[in-house]
Amino acid sequence: MPKVNWDDVDEGGGGGYNPVPCDEYLCKVTKAEEVQSKAGNIYWSITFRIEQGVYAGYLVLETIHFTENAKPRAKYFLSRLGLDVSGTKQEEPSKIVGKVIWVTTEHEEYNNQKRSKPSYYGFRAIGGGDGDEAIASPSSTNPKDDLPF
């Protein structure tokens, strides 16, 4: 049990967490675990660690759900990590730990604090997704830059 001097803690304080700027980052999955929601649905709680640049070492958290409505996004995400998403399989979160992927972040408010999270379809593969391939910098961090107008 931790010993805490509550007199030194500001209830309104945010713990000093600052989100990373909204951008695309090379990230490694450092933790992935299966969780069951109160409603009984299965999802994965995932921790990404930014691997390069000024924000190397910063963490970005995400959840991937496996309900019928969420399966298209789960399939998209897992395929970007190089997993075979054909047929019927028993997926294990341990399969993705150590994988490397480009993650585009955005900000959201959670418990009155701004935090970084991946955008809804903010995942881009690096080769097969196992991190052994050469890593190229993204040509653009803004998908709108590729528009012809």
Q: If you had to describe this structure to a student in words, what would you say it looks like?
A:
The structure is a single chain. This protein is mainly β and 149 residues long. It has a single domain (20-130), classed as OB fold (Dihydrolipoamide Acetyltransferase, E2P) (Beta Barrel). The protein is 7% helix and 35% strand. It has one helix and five strands. The protein has one helix spanning 71-80, and strands at 24-36, 42-50, 59-65, 100-110, 113-124. Strands 3-2-1-4-5 form a five-stranded antiparallel β-sheet, with helices on one face. A hairpin with a 2-residue loop joins strand 4 and strand 5. The longest helix has 10 residues, at 71-80. It is globular.
Low-confidence stretches: 128-149
Shape: globular
Order of strands in the sheet with most strands: 3-2-1-4-5
Mean pLDDT: 83
Number of strands: 5
Structural class: mainly beta
CATH class: Mainly Beta
**If classified by CATH, what would the architecture be?**
Beta Barrel
> What percent of the residues sit in helical stretches (DSSP H or I)?
under 10%
Cα separation of the termini: 60 Å
Topology:
Blueprint: E1 24-36, E2 42-50, E3 59-65, H1 71-80, E4 100-110, E5 113-124
Antiparallel strand pairs: 1-2, 1-4, 2-3, 4-5
What is the gist of this entry?
The protein is mainly beta. Helices cover 7% and strands 35% of the residues. The longest helix has 10 residues, at 71-80.
Features:
35% strand; 149 residues; single chain; mainly beta; five-stranded antiparallel β-sheet; disordered C terminus; 1 helix; globular; OB fold (Dihydrolipoamide Acetyltransferase, E2P)
